[in-house]
Each structure stands twice: as structure tokens, then as C-alpha cells.
Design goal:
Length: 460
């Protein structure tokens, strides 16, 4: 403290401290310090007795932290200083040797890389569990028709299995994005020192092996100033949360009396304090609303990193709260989505009634005309005319008289039997035979592909 004449302003200390949130990095910080002490001894930079004193102190501190007995001191700016202070209290002056050949700059980013790697694996586990449930529910509802929507208007019928599998594939890609973030956090920063490397011939590869890093960061400047692996995690988290928000939004709609397509499990809904009949889809609503929060964290860290001169700047301390909140949000919303999909009861009658709205077979009628030789654009216009006649007459397409059809399209009137066949409900779904379409055969293919995809996802 000899460098300073005046004590720190208490508000500066509050602004500057990260202990309030970075204490969650203690398991990483302890593991890192262990590996570092072992390496220092292996290189003859500290004596083996000194190493043992440090390791014993670290074990004692680990227990204090795990059992929540660790007493934080007023001057503990962050978790790294808190642990080092305590090492010195327990081990004596040798505690001061733990920081040999290490700076808080490479220390903090090393903890963070370990943390991101772990949580990226955690997110992948949560995603795989949700994919598993989606796939099972899709198998259970293989041939339940419901309307597919565009513009939230009934468009074309699909099978519920097909709709649920749409989320399965979004999540499969989300999993790959988290796997990429895990990969990107696999380079050990430790050994970069403050920014330029350290004045000892350390064994970074030994530390990397010990801590589960795949390789060592090649450039010390890049190592202490880079946080793109955090951006990678947040990018994956933002996209995944956005996908979950769409699932949440559909569950909100579908569970409304207006749709009546499903009933959400009691465990994921709440009652109203005033209206006893209500069952509110709070969890689904929160899936919707949490996504912008995660996207906000991604944008905020981009803001922190933007135009930041190399190398370490205190700005980088602002990476943590965005990351931590995104981690907590993603893991919790994945669990909520899994719980809801697992327990949701779909209402077959309501869905198939809505899917039986034969106006949604209009595209199929147009395609019939195309097969009879009419250009699609013209057929589109013909069917629009038929739909208008039907709607004006307050009836469905099947109820159109031959005369009404002749008035719009004489060609079609000659093919009345085919027209009726196209409007028979299952044919609207079964006609979607193209690869990736909703016909049963295609959905069965898709289910097999989904099962194979899931089997290839790393577990654990
Ligand atoms: N709490 C700091 C952070 O989160 C640790 C690194 C501090 N380094 C420094 N040179 N002040 O970034």
C-alpha cells in the first residue's frame, strides 16, 4: 500500500469489488491453485514442503467454502484475493508463494474458462434431456392431426409428432452450439502472467492436463484479453433461449380455452388469487420472457468487449454477471421446458376438429388442378374463388354444388370424385410425401433419424 497516500473511497471499493458474484468460482480457483502449486514444485520453483503447506491450506479452505464456514474479510476484493489471504493465514508466509509465476489476469480467465466448459456441458445435458422427452412425446402422438399455422392462421394440417420434432431439431443445433463453446474454452490461459508471460520456465502443459484443458493458449496477450469463449457460450444460450421462448409461447396459446389443444401439468402452473377457475401457464410465459434477458447479456458483453484495447482491463470483470445469469437462466428454463413437455396432456379432439377445417386443404385442391395441367398461379386463383363461394354460402368446400364449382372452374367440375377425395381429411396430411414433410411415412423416417441423432449425443 506504500504506493498510495490515501485509503480507497468506500464507494470505489463497492464499485471495484467482484466478490459479491465471483465467489461462485471458488471450486475452479481452488483446483487451479492446486495444479499451479504442484507445477511450481515439479519445476523446482518452490520446495516440496512448501507445496505441501499450500496444498493442505487449500484443502482446509475448500472445506470451509463447501460447508459455508469461510469468513470473507472486508478487504476481499474478489474470490482470488480471498482465497490467497486465507492460504497465508493458514499456511503462514509461504502462502505468499502461491502467486509466483501467476497474475490475477491469467488466474481469473483460467477459472472462467473452466467454469464455461463445465456449464456448456451442463447446458448440453439439459438439452439432451429435453430432446429425449420431445422425441418420446412425438412417438406417443405420431398420428394426431392439428392445424399447422402461418401468420397464426390455420394453414395446413400436420401431425403433432411432426410439430414436436421441429423443436427437437432446433435443440439438436443448440446442443452443437454449446459443444462449440465448450471446445473454445479448452485452451489454458494460465502461464500468460499479467500479459507477457512469466519469468519462470513453467510447465503449462502439466497444468493443462491436470485441469482438463485440451491445449495451452498460444499467445499470452490473447490469453488474458480474450473472452470470446464467453461470447460463444452466450451466443449459444441466446439462440437456445429464443427457441425455448417459441415453445413457451405455443404452450401459452395452446393451453388457452380458445385453442384448448393441451392442458399443462399442475406442477408447472399456478392458480389465480381471485379467479378460482384459472390455471395460469406461468412457466410457459416465463420461457417466453427469459429469452430477451439472455440475449441482453450477449449484447452487453459485446458492448464490454467492443473496441477494448489489449490486454486486461477492469472492464473484463463485467463478463461475469452476464455469464452467470445466463447460465442460471438457461439451465432453469431447460428444466422447465422438460417438465412441461413431459407432463402436458394433449387434447386429441380439439386438435383434430381444428385440423378438420377443410378450408385448410385449399393448397391440396390447387395441387389437384396442377396435376390436371393448370399452372399453379392460376390454380391458386381458382381455389380462392371456391373458398369465397363456400365462405359466402356459410359452408365447407365439400358441400359446394356441382353448379357452384362449374361457375368457378369447369375443369374441376369434371373431376368431382378426385376433388372429394382430396378433401377427405387424412389425405391432406398423407399427401405431404416430400422428404421432411408430415406424411406418416416421412415422420416415421424422421423419428428414426431423431433417435439416431440422440444416440450420438455425448451423455454425462
Ligand atoms: N476480479 C477481477 C476480474 O474479475 C480479477 C482480475 C483483476 N486483475 C487486475 N489486474 N485487477 O476481472
Amino acid at each position: 500500500m506504500a504506493r498510495f497516500h490515501e485509503p480507497q473511497h468506500p464507494d470505489f471499493q463497492r464499485l471495484n469489488a467482484s466478490i459479491g458474484f465471483d465467489r461462485r468460482l471458488w471450486p475452479q480457483d481452488i483446483a487451479q491453485s492446486r495444479a499451479h502449486a504442484a507445477m511450481l514444485a515439479a519445476r523446482g520453483i518452490i520446495a516440496t514442503e512448501e507445496r505441501d503447506g499450500l496444498l493442505d491450506a487449500l484443502t482446509a479452505i475448500e472445506e470451509e467454502l463447501r460447508e459455508e464456514r469461510f469468513v470473507f474479510a472486508a478487504g476481499d476484493e474478489d474470490i482470488h484475493m480471498a482465497i490467497e489471504r486465507r492460504v497465508t493465514e493458514i499456511a503462514g508466509a509461504v502462502g505468499g508463494k502461491l502467486h509466483t509465476a501467476r497474475s490475477r489476469n491469467d488466474q481469473v480467465v483460467t477459472d472462467l474458462a473452466m467454469y464455461v466448459s463445465e456449464r456448456a456441458r451442463g447446458a448440453q445435458r439439459g438439452i439432451v434431456e429435453l430432446m429425449e422427452v420431445l422425441l418420446r412425446r412425438a412417438e406417443e402422438h405420431l398420428e394426431w392431426p392439428l392445424p399447422g399455422y402461418t401468420h397464426l392462421q390455420r394453414a395446413q394440417p400436420v401431425y403433432l409428432s411432426h410439430h414436436l420434432l421441429a423443436y427437437f431439431w432446433m435443440l439438436a443445433r443448440d446442443r452443437s452450439r454449446f459443444a462449440f463453446a465448450e471446445h473454445e474454452s479448452g485452451r489454458l490461459p494460465l502461464g500468460a502472467g499479467a500479459l507477457a508471460g512469466v519469468n519462470f520456465d513453467t510447465d503449462r502443459r502439466m497444468v493443462a492436463r491436470e485441469l482438463g484443458f485440451r491445449e495451452v493458449a498460444v499467445n499470452s496477450i490473447d490469453a488474458v484479453s480474450g473472452r470470446d469463449f464467453v461470447l460463444d457460450y452466450l451466443g449459444a444460450a441466446a439462440t437456445c433461449s429464443t427457441h425455448l421462448s417459441r415453445l413457451g409461447a405455443e404452450l401459452v396459446l395452446w393451453s388457452s380455452s380458445e385453442f384448448g389443444f393441451c392442458e399443462l401439468p399442475d406442477a408447472w402452473t399456478s392458480g389465480s388469487s381471485i379467479m378460482p377457475q384459472k390455471k395460469n401457464p406461468d412457466a410457459a410465459e416465463l420461457l417466453r420472457a427469459k429469452a430477451p434477458r439472455v440475449v441482453g447479456h450477449l449484447a452487453a458483453l459485446h458492448g464490454v468487449m467492443h473496441a477494448l484495447p489489449l490486454t486486461y482491463n477492469k472492464d473484463l470483470q463485467e463478463d461475469k454477471e452476464h455469464l452467470f445469469d445466463a447460465v442460471d437462466t438457461v439451465e432453469l428454463t431447460l428444466a422447465a421446458a422438460k417438465g412441461m413437455i413431459d407432463g402436458v396432456r394433449f387434447e386429441r379432439e380439439r386438435m383434430s376438429e381444428a385440423a378438420a377445417d377443410e378450408l385448410i386443404a385449399a393448397t391440396d385442391v390447387a395441387d389437384l388442378l396442377v396435376r390436371l395441367g393448370m399452372p399453379f398461379r392460376e390454380a391458386h386463383g381458382v381455389v380462392a374463388g371456391l373458398v369465397r363461394t363456400a365462405v359466402d354460402g356459410g359452408k365447407g368446400l365439400l358441400a359446394l354444388t356441382d353448379d357452384e364449382i362449374i361457375a368457378v372452374c369447369p375443369l374441376l367440375a369434371t373431376q368431382r370424385a378426385q376433388f372429394d377425395a382430396v378433401l377427405a381429411q387424412s389425405s391432406w396430411l398423407e399427401s405431404k410425401v416430400s422428404e421432411g414433410g408430415t406424411s406418416l411415412e416421412r415422420v416415421r423416417e424422421q423419428l428414426m433419424l431423431a433417435r439416431a441423432t440422440l444416440d450420438e449425443c455425448p451423455r454425462g
